[in-house]
Amino acid sequence: MEISHNPSRHLQYLRQSLSQNSKPISYFLAAGCPLSVEMENEEDWPLIPDIKSLSLWVNNELIKNKSYGQLLKELKIAEKDHENIEHVLSFIRGLLEVAKGGSVRGLTEKQLQELDELVCEKIGKKVDVPLPESETPYHKLAKWISSIERKMPIEIFTTNYDLLIEQALDSLEVPYFDGFVGSRRPFFDLKAIENNLIPLHWSRLWKVHGSINWYREKIKERTKVYRSTEIKNEVSRLIYPSHLKYDESRKMPYIALIDQLNRFIREKSSFLILSGYSFGDSHINNTIINALKANSTAMVLGLMHGTYDDDSKNPRYPQAYELAQIQHNLNIWTFDKAIIGTNLGAWKPSEAGEEVDQNIKDFIEPLESDETDTLGCKLIKLGDFSKFTEFLKRTMGDREEGQDEK
Prior knowledge:
The chain folds into two domains: about 5-40 and about 130-210 and about 240-395; about 50-125, no CATH class. Helix content is about 35%, strand content about 20%. The protein is built from 14 helices and 19 strands. It has helices spanning about 5-20, 50-60, 65-75, 85-100, 110-125, 135-145, 165-170, 190-195, 245-250, 255-265, 280-295, 320-325, 360, 385-395; strands at about 5, 25-30, 105, 105-110, 155-160, 175, 180, 185-190, 205, 210-220, 220-225, 235-240, 270-275, 300-305, 330-335, 335-340, 345, 365, 380. A hairpin with a 5-residue loop joins strand 7 and strand 8.
């Protein structure tokens, strides 16, 4: 029997879940989110490029650097992807581990250290951009966060090391805690995170892969992490856009923030929504799945950009699909299909003449070949971060008094 999923029913369930002020709710923003920000001038888009485009830009910027040229040769020999800057940084840091006091693959420890800092500097230069003052998806999310008084604070996890979400929260005066305290040179406060010693009305912002304004310095033989209000190039940036995170995860603050993701999902009836995430990080995937296995009341919803298959008719997000088809409380929504409760099916209304609220109906689109067939398959494009935050905007004020006082 062919399985299908009713789009209006699941959108209504999503809206209801988001309106409950005592439900633990969190958003996970990944690399695809900045692509949804529209620019006044089309040639300025994207605001921040995707990983491949960022990687090619960094490669081009460093094309005349002899050490980087040697690194690219060694990447090719090692069959590593030079068009993924995360793999490049992983490779550099892996070589650093074995180059102490000497050299490896034709590169000295000093050269590798300089390359690490140089690549991070270039990344910072490219992603340190102002958020447009117009109502961007980030502003819509910030408005939703501040729209109702909540018994449980909103938590935002992100693998992005840009400052877009901070700009949106700051511009709308939404208070938040990102793990750092202090004013002159804010330092990482592990105790506040682990013991949840944070005002309830403050949202939480957890930057799992670090940030372009986090720095690490050695002071009196002790390594310290701090956050700056300005971007600096003369000190070591604390960003972890690499697959070496497994080896480096005993270093703060990465392990503390991964633990926070694990703790959140293990809360009773927790609800985590993933946007712009392609399930390419095995450490994060394992954290999510292990926590879901330990807590059957939790739910993780992955909103994926694009259709289930790519233009070549191959699965667009195979890792996500594989996990969702064995883990009942991980649901995956693509534009045309969804995996809900491990069941794959197309978006398709189950009843003719079904009454649907206009704020729900506006997010159910027909397939191009389905313009006149109201019973045919539909599209739900919440995998577009802009569409999803518009959905959030429509939910403001929908909460019925006392609906979640249970």
